[in-house]
Write a structure and sequence with these properties.
Number of domains of chain B: 3
Distance between the termini of chain A: 33 Å
Helix content of chain A: over 70%
Largest sheet of chain B: 6 strands, antiparallel, barrel
Shape of chain B: elongated
Number of strands of chain A: 0
Low-confidence stretches of chain A: none
Helix content of chain B: 25-40%
Structural class of chain B: alpha+beta
Number of strands of chain B: 14
Radius of gyration of chain A: 14 Å
CATH superfamily of the largest domain in chain B: Rod shape-determining protein MreC, domain 1
Low-confidence stretches of chain B: none
CATH topology of the largest domain in chain B: Thrombin, subunit H
Oligomer: heterodimer
Largest interface: A-B, 25 and 22 residues
CATH class of the largest domain in chain B: Mainly Beta
Strand content of chain A: under 5%
Number of helices of chain A: 4
Mean pLDDT of chain B: 80
Strand content of chain B: 25-35%
Structural class of chain A: mainly alpha
Shape of chain A: flat
Order of helices and strands of chain B: EEHHHEEEEEEEEEEEEH
Order of helices and strands of chain A: HHHH
């Protein structure tokens, strides 16, 4: 439930609220759903990207956060000796 | 033994299938495709959402900006508090002054409406809607708007009183004329006019103001004509009242001692 709410809130925030709040929500959601920052970044660039901006920074930063979170989660997860 | 792959160990997939993040990513890709393939549909669909976002941003900006100048508001509040205290003190002072003036009784004067004036009333008299019941006494002096002396209360009943104007025939009053404040005796000439005699060499011109004694120098009228008879040693000043006596609607009555001075004039020959 919390995952769904955070994901929806992030997407709504991308449309309705300033980007710092969206980034904060995406970061919070990332610990439960690592793909949310990437999805939110892609969504933000879909809405606001202009060719003059060069790199789609929202997507790049979302991808970077998602990779970092996946890495951190893999380190924190309890391992099983095989 | 067959080993199954534990899907729940995958960070991107849950045990029941796709995670919320995966759904979100699919949705984002779908929206991106819509924008690339059908941009018109994309912008038409999202325009209401952007409008709502703009309205929300404007409202929130207005709300937060009201807290932005808290220091200025605090300063202004402090300034208003000081001004309020100063005004309260001033108000208290004025109240005390008003109380003191009221304690002097007739010094503040009694305001009375004029119910009849020339030509309804006898010429050079005013009938006032106030009498002894209102504190009006015989001998009080009547002043018009601007403190212009008009006459003396000559008779009083319970509810009405009559003022004989300085312009009434036979009424004599004292005053000054001109910038050098030359003293002169003013006699009523009737019909709102007054006259006075002065030495021929006196520097008086048409338009000079004639003052009467009171609390200070009060403008009684203006010199409108100067008659000079070669056979007479002086000139005659014709004086018109500063107020139009036909349109006086109220007067202020004060006891200035005019009746006492008039009685004294009759009792002794030392006064003019």
């Amino acid at each position: 439930m919390m995952r769904g709410l955070l994901t929806l809130a992030t997407f709504v925030s991308v449309v309705m609220f300033p980007w710092p709040l969206s980034a904060l929500l995406a970061l919070a959601a990332a610990f439960l759903e690592p793909l949310v920052p990437l999805a939110a970044g892609l969504f933000a660039d879909t809405l606001y990207y202009t060719p003059q901006a060069g790199l789609p920074l929202f997507t790049v930063w979302g991808l970077a956060v998602s990779i970092v979170v996946v890495f951190v989660r893999s380190r924190l997860r309890t391992g099983i000796i095989r | 033994m067959k080993r199954t792959f534990l899907a729940k160990r995958n960070a991107l997939l849950s045990s029941t299938g796709l995670s919320w993040g995966a759904y979100a990513l699919i949705c984002a890709v779908f929206v991106l495709l819509v924008r690339l393939l059908a941009p018109n549909l994309f912008w038409q669909t999202l325009t209401p959402a952007f409008n709502a976002a703009d309205a929300l941003a404007a409202q929130s900006h207005f709300f937060f900006s009201s807290f932005g100048d808290a220091a200025t508001l605090s300063l202004r509040n402090e300034q208003l508090v000081h001004e309020n205290a100063a005004l309260a003190n001033e108000n208290q002072t004025l109240l005390e002054k008003a109380r003191d003036i009221a304690a002097l009784g007739t010094a503040a004067g009694i305001r009375a409406g004029v119910v009849a004036r020339p030509p309804e009333s006898p010429y050079d008299t005013l009938v006032l809607a106030g009498g002894s019941a209102d504190g009006i006494r015989k001998g009080m002096e009547a002043f018009g708007a601007g403190g212009v002396p008009l006459g003396i209360v000559s008779s009083v009943s319970a509810d009405f009183s009559r003022v004989t104007l300085f312009s009434a025939p036979g009424v004599v009053s004292n005053g000054w004329v001109g910038q050098q404040s030359l003293p002169l005796t003013i006699a009523g000439a009737g019909a709102g006019a007054m006259s006075a005699s002065l030495a021929r060499s006196a520097p008086v011109a048409v338009g000079d103001t004639v003052f009467a004694p009171g609390p200070g120098r009060l403008p009684l009228g203006t010199v409108v004509r100067i008659d000079s008879d070669p056979s007479a040693p002086g000139v005659t000043l014709h004086i018109q009242s500063s107020l139009n006596l036909f349109s006086v609607t109220w007067v202020l009555l004060r006891d200035t001692g005019a009746a006492f001075v008039g009685a004294l004039r009759e009792a002794t020959s030392t006064l003019p």
